[in-house]
Design goal:
mainly alpha; elongated
Amino acid sequence: MSDSVPETENPAEAAESVEAYDPAAPAPLNVPRTPTGNAEVDAGLERLADADHLATDGHMEVYEDVHQGLRDALTALDARPGPPAPTRHPTAAPQ
């Protein structure tokens, strides 16, 4: 505890800080992005951070870009060759 009197704020500086604050300005949401281990998906998640610095009307472009990237990643999973299809064992000819 101190016996000194705290300095009062300079009124010009106080007015400047109030003017600098804009509640409608873009602000980061600070949503944590957990890596998935898939490079394409992780890149899309990082791309979402770009929306933090844009006005609301700029979010759509980022979201559409990320959405397309995620769709492409899912489509690529379907296109990869999987294990061969099981073969049917020949049955004995009917007698």
